[in-house]
Amino acid sequence: MNKGIYIATLESHSGKSMISLGLMRTLLGKMVKVGYFRPIINNVIEGQRDNHIDTVLSYFDLDIPYEDTFAFTRNEVIQKRNEGKSGEIIDTIISKYKKLEEEFDFILVEGSDFSGEGSVFEFDVNVVIAKNLGIPVIIVVSGQFKNWEELLGNQQMAYRAFKDKEVQVIAMVSNKIQQDNLELAKKNMRAFLPDEVGVFAIPFVDTLNNPTLKEIVKVLNGNVLFGHDFLDNQTGNFGVGAMQLRNYLTTLKNESLVITPGDRADIILGALQANISSNYPRISGIILTGGLTPEESILKLIEGLSDIVPIISVNEGTFSVTNMVGAIKSNIYADSIQKIQTTISIFERYVSFDPLVEKLINYNPQGITPRMFQYGLVQRARQGKKHIVLPEGTDERILTAAKRLIDMNLVELTLLGDIDTIHKTVAKIALDLDFSKVNIIDPITSPNLQDYAETFYELRKHKGVNMDMAKDRMCDVSYYGTMMIHKGHADGMVSGAAHTTQHTILPALQFIKTKPNVSVVSSVFFMCLEDRVSVFGDCAINPNPTADELAEITISSAESASAFGIAPKIAMLSYSSGSSGKGADVDRVREATEIVRKRRPDLKIEGPIQYDAAVDISIGKSKLPESEVAGQANVLIFPDLNTGNNTYKAVQRETGALAIGPMLQGLNKPVNDLSRGCTVADIYNTVILTAIQAQGI
Q: What pLDDT does residue 248 have?
């Protein structure tokens, strides 16, 4: 069975790293353990590590010792080749790969980078390595600085080289192509490649090729005077500040890097003022050349500014620095989280590897891993794109999550709130949110306000609501967002980052209402533990459910688990296991268990049962040896809110588990509640859950 794939190129700076990061994300969504291996890495200074290996290991949290991820440095390969030991190179690479193959379900192998001495023979070495490892290949070719004839010639040469060695090529990627030429690039590849070889084209993306201030500091050996916390700023372009300020300001572009002699206080202060002015673009940083620094009074003035970009002093002259900055080739580092996420997002937008990956993988995973689960969520959300409304549109976390969701093309979004405030908040946090891809509505000025108020009045007039009250309610973002769902103007809502649970849920209970045969709105968390996903319910809504309510919560939770690919094995948790325990609390759980068995005899359920007996196979078998659930439970139902809420938080904090949710169950249309301490990741995941719910699960 094939257990690997090889990513190869025939040149430096091809964008191979994007394919590696994107494909690693795809693979981790489909299997439990994925390894990473680079047969040959660039030379590194003694005591340091290969940057790209560190990036992959760190971002994807791969449990692989660093020394197992590569076989040789480039210098070592050249030396052995010069000594006539080419066979030893291959033997060592095979040995190290096979070791990983024994430990992992699949291995992503990344070829060499083609930089420095000896690059002439590297392509042939990569062909030989792929041949000896017996794994198929993805070829990546850059279209940057090439005409069509050159690009096509390189692609045909690369394909023939692997084909001649009987190495299967499963896909070819044309990278760094102009946006308007993507379809032509794919057409040209398809003209000479067999139908079974996938063809993909990815556009040139400026933001991925521009260096960060951190990279510039490293190359220039600069001294950071201000803005240490913003060294991850990426440069959009750069220019020399040598003219008078009034003329220089007109040359500024978004994310400009200002290069100017250190004694030009006028340019320095003018650029900083432009950065915070709504009339000028933001700048990414300032380079002070010639080893000069501003006078003490100027430094003191800068120090007191509220918004400071990185200001870096270097010894070289302006001309030299400008040339050096222009020559920097940007890389992706382990701490460049935004850049990594952007890279993966672009890969997933332009490359659909799923059909090809399915051909590569022949396995039958048991259960579902956190990686599989999260990958599945993203894919399902994207396949059935839904419209989600976020009432707290002025919250920085909401806006940041909105950008990520839009960039990933997962949902259509509507933000509610004062439009001017939303725009100012986006500018304040320097968020590159594409406003053309998101709807923004201020309920107070919305053309739908009157219609929504009249609808609410008709729905609630029997409760004493008059038109003035109805209109007042519809000016509230939670009520307005819920009415959007009721009227079919949105598919779901996520709120709670700045509002209470009651504020979020009450409108839904008033006019979204519960599904037929459902009387209890409840919640579940999807707990992504180290090697499995468990469903915890109810940890957010019902303080002290009765036995009948607990049974309904259980059935809803089992249905939610099934809808998200988890075959439910239900544990009804209590302080005792089996029939030994006595008392009102355990009797209530016992009664709820029997109700579930009568209503849903198809469900696998055990209760009452203690938490350790539910999840630990040895303890479960010792306490309930005949149970088909004990020790294997993946749906855990807590007897009350106190127990459930504290347990999920304890598990989350002590194990580092990712808690996705809460996801509300039982409503006719999806409305989900965040905690006021939620993170951007919490919002992102909850919106995805809501979108999938809206697909009609």
A: 87
Ranking 351-355, 393-397, 671-675 by mean pLDDT, the lowest is: 351-355
Residue-level pLDDT at 239: 82
| Domain enclosing residue 531, as ranges | 517-666
Listing DSSP states for 485-506 in one string gives: HHTTS-SEEEE-SSS-HHHHHH
Q: Alpha carbon 168 to chain centroid distance? A: 31
Helix (H, G, I), strand (E, B) or coil at 658: strand
CA angle 485-489-492, nearest 5°? 40
How would residue 117 be classed by pLDDT, with cut points 50, 70 and 90? very low
Q: How does DSSP classify residue 253?
A: -
- Residue-wise pLDDT for 591-609, tens only, equals 999 999 999 999 999 989 9
**Three-state DSSP class for residue 177:** strand
Q: Are 293 and 315 in contact (CB under 8 A)?
A: no
Q: Distance between alpha carbon 389 and the CA centroid of its chain, in Å?
A: 20
Report the CATH number at residue 86: 3.40.50.300
What mean pLDDT, rounded, does the chain reach?
Answer: 88
The answer to whether residues 662 and 672 belong to one domain is no
Length of the chain: 697
CB atoms within 10 A of CB 544: 12
- Domain CATH number, residue 653: 3.40.50.10750
CB neighbour class for 434 (10 Å; exposed up to 12, middle 13-18, buried from 19): exposed
Determine contact, residues 112/9, Cβ cutoff 8 Å: no
Do 198 and 233 fall within a single domain?
no
Which range (124-133, 446-455, 486-495) has the least confidence? 124-133
